[in-house]
Write a structure and sequence with these properties.
7-stranded mixed beta sheet; 7 strands; about 270 residues; alpha/beta; globular
Length: about 270
């Protein structure tokens, strides 16, 4: 493990287990769930009820409006208030969202995803907690970005792996051009029930806002085990694909360094 990785690992922020959850929404329902309880109960239920199968879907769902996926977005701090959020794990999902899948025979390897050269963009992608960017400033911009994404007319959410890894990614964006490109860049992952990913990228197109790009890596507790997760924030008039990819790739490097640091710590503890 490099000297830099050990220093960064020690200075990254440690969050409570529920820190990534939208506490206002999720815990609020737990505390104020009385409205879900019926005020009247029948002494016996009709026999026909036992013959009815369990419901497998919510009413009023349609493309862009999926309750389970929306709750997953809530856990990432974004609430699709316009009821139009599209999860994208394959090209067909792009078409369902009303967009065209990205195609470029000159840029896509026949054996892999879209190749993106993001090396130059990494120079302007600071990590929160470094001398270039405090966690406080990062959190302030992140919260504003989440709020503006929540109010967007449509949200597009490509999911997959960082190429060459098994590090899961979810991008939440209001950018119609970027969403198909990002799905083409990510390696396809098996589709599972919606859940928060190891890296969450918030990408906002806002003509009125100043350009900003950064990432943060934080340690949380999951099932009693320490785990690092990352957030990438990119906003501005026209965020570039290279900038977003730079944040994803630098986050993946940081997550690997944290995993290696924890493994070294556990090994050293066992030898004592």
């Amino acid at each position: 493990m490099s000297t830099r990785s050990s220093i960064v690992f020690l200075t990254r922020r440690v969050l409570a287990p529920a820190a990534r959850i939208n506490d206002v929404i999720l815990s609020g329902n737990k505390k104020n769930s009385s409205f879900l309880k019926p005020s009247r109960f029948f002494s016996s239920a009709p026999e026909s009820i036992s013959r009815v199968g369990a419901a497998t879907s919510f009413p009023n769902e349609y493309p862009g409006m999926n309750y389970e996926f929306n709750w997953s977005l809530n856990a990432d701090g974004v609430t699709p208030t316009k009821k139009s959020a599209f999860r994208m794990t394959k090209p067909l999902d792009v078409r369902i969202a009303g967009l065209d899948p990205f195609k470029s025979s000159s840029s896509i390897s026949s054996n892999g995803p879209l190749k993106v050269d993001a090396e130059s963009a990494k120079a302007s992608m600071p990590e929160a907690g470094s001398d270039a960017l405090t966690f406080e400033n990062f959190d302030e911009v992140t919260q504003r970005t989440k709020d503006l994404l929540s109010m967007s007319d449509h949200l597009y959410c490509p999911e997959g792996y960082v190429p060459g890894t098994r590090i899961s990614v979810r991008v939440i964006t209001n950018s119609k051009p970027l969403a198909p490109q990002l799905l083409a860049y990510l390696e396809r992952a098996p589709k599972k029930d919606p859940s928060s990913q190891s890296i969450t990228a918030y990408v906002l197109v806002d003509p009125t806002d100043q350009d900003f790009s950064a990432y943060a890596i934080e340690e949380i507790e999951q099932d009693g085990q320490a785990k690092s997760v990352a957030a990438v924030v990119v906003l501005g008039k026209a965020p570039s694909l290279e900038t977003v990819v730079a944040g994803l790739e630098m986050s993946a490097i940081g997550l690997k360094e944290d995993e290696a640091a924890r493994a070294d710590t556990e090994e050293a503890a066992q030898e004592e």
